[in-house]
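INFO  loader      accepted 1 record
INFO  loader      residues=200
INFO  predictor   begin
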Amino acid sequence: MGENVIALRKMNLESYGLDISPHMLRKARKKLREHGITDVKKRLKQCDVREIAASFKNKFQAVIAVYSLDFLPNMQEFRQSVESVTRALDENGSFIMAISHPTAHPNYPQLTNETMRTNEGALSVLIYSVRDAVSALCDSGMVIERIVEQQTMNPSQISYEEGQRFPYHFHQGKNPCAPLFDPISNKNPHSTIYKAKKRT
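INFO  predictor   done
INFO  writer      dumping tokens
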């Protein structure tokens, strides 16, 4: 919804937001305007991650994918997406990918390092095994530099001041996290973040 574009602009970096959903792009346009970004049309584009390399003439120094790859239909399209991102990167370009942590799957003990889909109605997503994520990145021509298991303790208790370190949803007097989810967040990491560099 534009948070990464805003955060990167605050760091004086040239940034663009891509999403396949017109609904999410509408939300992003509104948020960018609220943060004083005027060249909104230039900054946001409707784009399928599987087609990112074909959608831009220029190469990127970095591509950041935050949970978007969880919504792909299968491993083949995940691999296709990672390969497209690799082609979209310039020499030594970086890819940062945040995906749901394997322990987020309700049947995690039975997964045995297999990528599987959750079956939760409208919010059915792929939960990638570490093995499948690593092999997709390496097979596409990237070198993995870092893997982080993100864990936030008691997210509903994060203060506004602490929340300023994150670009997401924190507003004065409004923490977007519900206390109901604190025990879940405290028990397991909720995401895995991979940082990879294009091999030259």
